[in-house]
Each structure stands twice: as structure tokens, then as C-alpha cells.
Design goal:
Elements: E1 2-4, H1 6-9, E2 19-21, E3 26-28, H2 36-42, E4 48-50, H3 98-116, H4 120-141, H5 157-175, H6 180-192, H7 202-205, H8 212-219, H9 221-232, H10 237-245, H11 266-281, H12 292-302, H13 309-316, H14 327-330
Antiparallel strand pairs: 1-4, 2-3, 2-4
Helix pairs in contact: 3-4, 4-5, 4-6, 5-6, 5-11, 6-10, 6-11, 9-10, 10-11
Length: 332
């Protein structure tokens, strides 16, 4: 038998092998759907084991000082989406044309459909298509954008978060006059930063107050995302690192490795900041805000503990600070 960690199991939706405790007792059989309840039950055991082919090693990250090994195995998702569904809500105040907003969400939903069906080559091509569209659409309107709210896509968080992060990060890159290659990398890495969430059980993601063990499982999406991008989609290392590092904080209080300062890659700093801002304006944090101005105020309050001071200052001053449009008004 081969030892495996609970954190390594979250990428499976249906187990392809049996799970045993250190006494040899079978806890879960191959073919069972792995729910959050089962994950919590088996997490009570100090050691878990699986039967596996000799040429296959489970994914495992045991050191806080090293990133996931490039040689580790990543299984494909065990379930398939039957149809492509996406939220068609439109932000009426956006400088991005209504049809372009819908198209972005449609393209992204199609890409996630490919990811969930393990069609990684197709997904990689689709990501490049979305990246090109965002670069073009934002480049065409950036001079007319006064408020952050004029860029935000509205609708379900799952459909919009990565897109909003990419749009905002791209706009920031244009405003800062970054090199075009850097802006393209920012866009692409932002689109992919949360791809590890595709392997976290849906019932766990829907919980409003997850337990500490459930939180640990959700946080593993950073390591899972790195492996998916590196091994399944053959993405460049700097793109993969954003998936791994976007929850690291400037003061070392983040996860998964508690990196700080210059240890965090530049792309990760930008994408992590934009991702947090979208979480704020999407009601996904403990802070409750009604508009972009309140969200920017929270960003400043969090300050250098989470963000690089110079980067945060530039971000807050990218657009007009006095953005008072409520999210309800944007949909009218």
C-alpha cells in the first residue's frame, strides 16, 4: 500500500482506488463519489493509504519550502458537465459592449467545460482566445474608463470571478504602461489563477461557514491549480506560479507556503491584488461593501500586510476613487 494525504484526494470526484487506514481497514472503495463529508470523516485518521500501480505516485506536497514537483501525477476529473450554462447578466454601466460581456462569459464557460472533460489542449487554445479578446476589448476602451465599476462583469461568481480578475489586471497593466508581453501574461495567468477550484467538491464551495478542515481542503486549490497548469496544460512556469501564489501575502500570513515580500512573483502580486478586489466587490469576503469606493477603502485598510505598498498605491489611483455606483444600480 502507498501512503496518501487528504489534501491529495480533493482533486478526485470519484475515487479510482480504495482508501485504507493504518490498520488495513478499508474506509472508502474505488468508484465512490468523494463528498466533503467523506473527506472530513477520513481526515480524522493520522495515516491513509491506497493501492496504486507501481509506476504511479500520488500527488503530495509535504514541505512548505518547495513548490509541487513537476513529476507528480494529476488525475483527470471523474465527472463531466452535460451542457454549457453561463450567466447572461449584463452591466449596463460598463464601457465593455453588452455583447462582448456575454461573449466573454460564454467563452469562459466553454473553456471550463473543456477542463472538466479533461480536454486540456482545447482548453489551452480557448484560454488564448479569451486572452486575446480581453486585451483587445479593454485596450479599445481603457481611455474612456473612469471607474472600476465600468469594467466589472455581473452574474454568478463562478462565471465571472476569473474574468473580472483578468479584466481588472489587464486594465491596470495598460494604465501602468507595462510591456505588451507582460500585460498578456497578466491576462492569461489571471484567467487561470483559480483553475484548481475545478477539483474542489461543489458542496464544499457552497458552504458559507466551512470548518477549519474544510477550509484547508479549499485552500489546496492553489497547489492543485499549479499541477493542472504545469502537468495537464503545459503552461509556462510564471503562469503556473500565479495559481500557486495568488493567496500569499506581503507579510507572510498567506498560503500555501507563507511567502513574503520578494519571494512572491510579480505576476502573482498583481493578480492576487485584483482577485481580492473582485472578491470584495462580489461579497466573497468578511468585509461588506456597497460600492467600489468602499472596496478601495478596505484595500487601503488591509494595506501592506497583504499587498506591496507601491503596487497598492498605484492600484487605488488607477481610476477615480469616488466610485459610488451600487452593484444593484449597475444591473438596472
Amino acid at each position: 500500500m502507498e501512503r496518501i494525504l487528504v489534501e491529495d484526494l480533493v482533486k478526485f470526484k470519484m475515487l479510482p482506488f480504495d482508501i485504507y487506514n493504518d490498520s488495513g481497514e478499508k474506509l472508502i472503495s474505488a468508484g465512490e463519489i468523494l463528498t466533503s463529508g467523506k473527506l472530513l470523516r477520513i481526515s480524522q485518521y493520522s495515516e491513509l493509504y491506497k493501492d496504486a500501480p507501481k509506476n504511479q505516485r500520488p500527488s503530495r506536497i509535504s514541505s512548505s519550502e518547495s513548490k509541487p514537483s513537476d513529476s507528480e501525477y494529476i488525475p483527470p476529473p471523474a465527472t463531466h458537465t452535460k451542457e454549457i450554462i453561463f450567466d447572461k447578466t449584463v452591466n449596463k454601466t460598463s464601457k465593455i459592449k453588452a455583447q462582448a460581456q456575454v461573449d466573454m462569459k460564454s467563452y469562459y464557460a466553454t473553456t471550463m467545460f473543456a477542463v472538466n472533460n479533461n480536454e486540456n489542449k482545447d482548453a489551452a487554445l480557448m484560454i488564448d482566445e479569451i486572452k486575446t479578446k480581453i486585451l483587445s476589448d479593454i485596450g479599445n476602451v481603457i481611455e474612456d474608463v473612469k471607474f472600476c465599476s465600468q469594467l466589472k462583469l455581473l452574474g454568478s461568481y463562478a462565471d465571472c470571478h476569473s474574468l473580472n480578475t483578468a479584466i481588472l489586471a489587464t486594465a491596470f497593466g495598460y494604465k501602468m504602461e507595462y510591456d505588451s508581453d507582460i500585460i498578456a501574461k497578466i491576462t492569461k495567468s489571471a484567467l487561470l489563477h483559480d483553475i484548481g477550484m475545478t477539483r474542489i467538491p461543489e458542496d464544499l464551495l457552497k458552504k458559507t461557514n466551512p470548518s477549519s478542515q474544510e477550509t484547508k481542503i479549499i485552500q489546496s486549490h492553489t497547489q492543485i491549480g499549479y499541477k493542472i497548469l504545469k502537468l495537464d496544460m503545459n503552461m509556462p512556469e510564471d503562469i503556473c506560479l500565479v495559481a500557486l501564489e495568488h493567496h500569499e501575502n506581503n507579510d507572510g500570513s498567506g498560503y500555501p507556503f507563507k511567502l513574503s515580500g520578494e519571494q512572491i512573483s510579480e505576476l502573482s502580486r498583481v493578480v492576487g491584488m485584483c482577485s481580492f478586489f473582485d472578491d470584495l466587490t462580489s461579497g466573497k469576503t468578511t468585509y461588506k461593501v456597497k460600492n467600489t469606493k468602499e472596496a478601495l477603502r478596505i484595500m487601503l485598510e488591509v494595506g501592506s500586510k497583504r499587498f506591496f505598498p507601491e503596487l497598492l498605491y498605484k492600484f487605488v489611483n488607477t481610476f477615480n476613487y469616488n466610485d459610488l455606483s451600487t452593484f444593484e444600480e449597475m444591473m438596472q
